[in-house]
Amino acid sequence: MASGGSAIRGSRVGSGPMGEQDRGFHAERVAVSYWDELGNETVRYFSASVPDDEIPATIDSPQSGLPAGRDKANPPSLSKMEPYKTHLAYVKERRTEEEAAQLLDEALRALRARRGLAN
């Protein structure tokens, strides 16, 4: 008896030739290129049945984080660099110093009352 081995070694049970008939129908699609200020190109694919006005004009570039547009010669620029704001900065935008002092006083009175230190 020859020492051969299994004829199906290395393959999965029930597997066969892979191809379009096995993977299903692929819908037609269009490739849309976007460029950022640094010249990075990003290609996104959309269904060919999507109207052109529903394809976004700009996206965020995954390479740089900058906005990317469809016009290679005139990529969109970052309109305004928004600095990071802390929670406290947002609170200070909504409250005046007097309101903040009043809220702090109310919170301290409530805390002292819970601890039995009310004045």
**Which term fits the overall shape?**
elongated
* SS content category: alpha+beta
Helix content: 25-40%
Report mean pLDDT, rounded to a whole number.
83
Tell me the layout of helices and strands.
Blueprint: H1 20-23, E1 29-35, E2 41-47, E3 58-60, E4 67-69, H2 87-94, H3 97-115
What does it look like?
With 119 residues, this protein is of the alpha+beta class. Among the domains are: 44 residues, no CATH class; 37 residues. It has three helices and four strands, in the order αββββαα. A two-stranded antiparallel sheet has the order 1-2. It has a two-stranded antiparallel sheet with strand order 3-4. A hairpin with a 5-residue loop joins strand 1 and strand 2. The radius of gyration is 31 Å and the shape is elongated. It starts with 19 loop residues before the first helix and ends with a helix.
Short description:
The protein has three helices and four strands, in the order αββββαα. By secondary structure, it is an alpha+beta fold.
What characteristics describe this protein?
119 residues, alpha+beta
